[in-house]
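User: I'm curious whether this sequence folds into something compact or stays loose and floppy. Could you predict its structure so I can see for myself?
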Amino acid sequence: MTQVIDGKSIAAGLREELAQQVKALPAQPGLAVILVGDNPASHVYVKNKIKACEQVGIKSFESRLPAQATQAEVAVEIQAFNDNPSVHGILMQLPVPDHLNSDDLIHLVNPAKDVDGLTFINIGKLVAGDETGMVPCTPQGSMILIKSVEENLGGKHAVVIGRSLLFGKPMAQLLLAENCTVTTAHSRTQNLDEVCRSADILVAAVGREKMVKGDWIKPGAIVIDVGINRMEDGKLCGDVDYEAALEIASAITPVPGGVGPMTIACLLKNTVKAAQST
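Assistant: Here's the prediction. I'll summarize afterward.
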């Protein structure tokens, strides 16, 4: 019988651990969120992150800027949080309005406070296997979910569909660190279905509704569905045909309730790690 990986429960357990770690710190950790514009989804995400901070004892700092804010104005906010000793983590909520350069803004964040793990310093540390760096939250959470099913991943073939800097590339690095053989698949990959069928661990992060069909999945594979798509009836689904996968995979994450809760939990984990390092 296929195991449905309960991201909500595992994230709740991680938050409990973090709450105990926070109590042991000499000062309260602080997470600053910079939100530019009126993207409704971003506002919901920020609200959820602030609520999660409260649950583990992390203090929240917010900077909400209008959609017309300039690059220089956002940069000033980042620098203020860089200079604030009460702030241990800084999150630049994405996406930002089109006139802003999000890459340049992210690289203004002090790498020690870069809880998204997207600055060049932290990317380099991940590739080098330096555990002092910050690991991006969604791949970090996905790895925790995979290891909740099987602790020893050495020698397994992992396929990651997606090559973004935010998820695909760091996910591949984390799997390599666990001694997997890793294939990164993307929009130019030929015979994608065949590539997926070779995977002991299949991770889908492409943002296309139910793209991964049941017959793309190797019997007994662990499937991590990172996608979140809204269907015509308003319901959410992932990048994997969940119902079909339930007949084949050994374990799979649901959407919602799988990877999503772990992303926020790992944001808190990175914030506590940053506070412990000061």
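Summary: The chain has two domains: 26-111, 137-260. Residues 90 and 114 are 6 Å apart (CA to CA).
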